[in-house]
Design a protein that fits this description.
The chain has about 130 residues and is an alpha/beta fold. The protein contains five helices and five strands.
């Protein structure tokens, strides 16, 4: 699958409607971004079952800020609407291919259970703080 350009408006829909989404935050002036672009494109063409998106941080400054992007390129991976990977820096082809396979191989039942447990702990902690105040 070829990469798609997404915007602040299309970002939520892209994450919601696709099982696995990789997002490359980049800018035209960024040397490492330009080095990573062909790797990203090449790997995307090897995985028709995954959505590979790109966000131009210059054109989409609001989205980049909302995503907490402080360094580019930054690569994010979402699986079943959950952010499972976020890291700045360019990867080489083998590193990126390994990452794609790792994201595909995640036990999402365990991931969702872990998130639910963290939410329960956070709720219990905030209830305890409210009682102490």
């Amino acid at each position: 699958m070829a990469t798609i350009d997404i915007t602040e408006a299309s970002f939520p829909e892209t994450i919601e409607e696709n099982d696995i989404v990789f997002v490359d935050f980049w800018a035209d002036w960024c040397g490492p971004c330009k080095q990573f672009a062909p790797v990203y494109e090449s790997v995307s063409q090897q995985h028709d079952d995954i959505t590979f998106a790109k966000v131009d941080t210059e054109a989409e400054q609001g989205l980049a800020a909302a995503a907490g992007i402080t360094s580019i390129p930054t690569l994010m991976a979402f699986r079943e609407k959950v952010l499972v990977f976020s890291q700045p820096g360019a990867l080489n082809a083998s590193q990126f291919s390994e990452l794609v396979e790792a994201v595909k191989g995640l036990d999402m039942k365990a991931v969702h259970e872990q998130i639910a447990e963290q939410e329960r702990e956070a709720a219990a902690g905030s209830n305890g703080q409210a009682k102490q105040a």
